[in-house]
Amino acid sequence: MSFKDTGKMYVEQEVVIHQIRITLISCNMKSLEKVCVDLIRRTKEENLKVQELVWMTTKTLRITTR
Predict the structure, then answer these.
(1) Among 24, 44, 26, 28, CA closest to 36
(2) What is the pLDDT of residue 55?
(3) How many CA atoms, within 13 angstroms, populate the side-chain half-sphere of residue 19?
(4) 39 neighbors 20 (Cβ within 8 angstroms)
(5) DSSP string across 3-66
(6) Of 13, 16, 33, 66, which residue has the fewest beta carbons closer than 10 angstroms?
(7) From CA 51, how far away is CA 49, in angstroms rounded?
(8) Cα 48 to the center of its chain, rounded Å
(9) What residues have CB less than 8 Å from 56, skipping those under 6 apart?
């Protein structure tokens, strides 16, 4: 039996990139900061790319009317 050379090259499979966004909500800022620092530390240990934190307001605006 003989095999024909088709000229096709084997191409490596592309790596799938997963992007995850986490929203944490709490009135206790100390606990939020602790969780954020822990998440960032763990991702850096795994050599993953981490973007900076985006702080959101924790207060609710109350408008009193008559």
Answers:
(1) 24
(2) 80
(3) 1
(4) no
(5) -----PPP-PPPPPPP--------S-HHHHHHHHHHHHHHHHHTT---PPP-----PPP-----
(6) 66
(7) 7
(8) 9
(9) 23, 25
In this structure, are residues 24 and 35 in contact, taking their beta carbons and an 8 Å threshold?
A: yes
Quote the pTM value. 0.57
Look over the chain and give the mean of its residue pLDDT values, rounded to a whole number: 82
Query: What are 12's two structure tokens?
Result: 């490596």
Please say if the pLDDT value at position 22 is more than 80: yes
Local structure of 2: helix, strand or coil: coil
Tokens at 57, concatenated = 């307001």
Q: How far apart are CA 9 and CA 51, in angstroms?
A: 37
Question: Which CA distances in Å does 34 have to 2, 18, 46, 52?
Answer: 66, 24, 19, 15
